[in-house]
Amino acid sequence: MRIDLHTHSTASDGTDTPAELVRGAAAAGLDVVALTDHDTVGGHAEARAALPEGLTLVTGAELSCRIDGVSLHMLAYLFDPDEPELSRERELVRDDRVPRAQGMVAKLRDLGVPITWERVAEIAGDGAVGRPHLATALVELGLVASVSDAFTAEWLGQDGRAYVEKHELDPFDAIRLVKAAGGVTVFAHPLALKRGSCVPESMIGELAAAGLDGIEVDHMDHDEPTRARLRGLAADLGLLATGSSDYHGSRKTCRLGEYTTDPEIYGEIVRRATGAFPVPGAGG
Fold first, then answer.
1. What are the angstrom distances between the C-alpha of 15 and each of 51, 133, 249, 251?
2. How far apart are CA 211 and CA 194, in angstroms?
3. Cβ(65)–Cβ(90) under 8 Å?
4. pTM for the full model?
5. Confidence class of residue 158 from pLDDT cuts 50, 70 and 90?
6. Model confidence over 159-192: pLDDT tens digits?
7. pLDDT beyond 80 at 28
8. Is the pLDDT reported for residue 282 higher than 80?
9. Between vectors from CA 131 to CA 128 and to CA 137, what angle results, nearest 5°?
């Protein structure tokens, strides 16, 4: 089985619609794909309706978190999307995305960048607006060569010149809320240093003690020594070690299925979940 547990669609900051994403996952030879848009489940219904036969959909979200001034992302799988407390927190994060993005546009304009909110909103479309949409605008303006190049101290990286904070969950609260909704939590790309500051490994231990289920080990932003270190840390802490593409369509260079999760690990995620269940494709 080929299993990719971290992808994004136009419901957040990917460039493929949910329907295009699941069709692309099947074409890439995947057996299981998780749709984990940022702080939203808005793409799940379309993905279900278009799910090709032979492909299984894992519903999820990537939750925006912050602790001790450091941003981090928590992948949440197979939770009840209607659980009220978790729904309320996701809504708070989403509601803060527009004023935050507008604030970053204002900072960029103060730096002399001829960016407009109208163009950023157009790029975002119906998705949850975020830094990748601003980064795309910077690419269009010729200020950076790629979306990834905009995530630096010069531009949109954490504490960068145009960075603006947003409402984010405490990761311990995120774990509690997802568990209360019957879901499973995996810390996304925990040592992706190129993105900015990362929490210390001791914090991962504290999160594990609080109920964290796993950490994303095999990821494009982790080099081989980092993956080996994380795999050892997962073993020491009794955490599940996953692998995923973090696919964003044409917005990033990663391909669907570029990194995958071991079927036994996937089986354990499904076993632990009680809020929702994987959706088998019926040829949509």
1. 18, 10, 5, 6
2. 27
3. no
4. 0.88
5. confident
6. 899 999 888 999 999 999 999 999 999 999 999 8
7. yes
8. no
9. 105
The single-letter code of the amino acid at 178 is V
SS3 107: helix
Are the C-beta atoms of 243 and 264 separated by less than 8 Å? Answer: no
Say if CB 238 and CB 206 are below 8 A apart: no
Q: CA angle 54-58-59, nearest 5°?
A: 135
Strands 32-35, 240-243: pairing is: unpaired
Please name which of 225, 224, 220 lies closest in space to residue 243, comparing C-alpha atoms: 220
> C-alpha angle with apex 155: 258 to 133, nearest 5 degrees?
55
Residue 224, φ and ψ in degrees, nearest 5? -60, -45
User: Torsion angle of alpha carbons 213, 210, 67, 5, nearest 10°?
Assistant: 10
Residue 166 near residue 94, CB atoms below 8 Å: no
Q: Are β-strands 184-187 and 70-77 bridged in parallel, bridged antiparallel, or unpaired? A: antiparallel
Residue pLDDT, tens place only, 196-206: 789 999 999 99
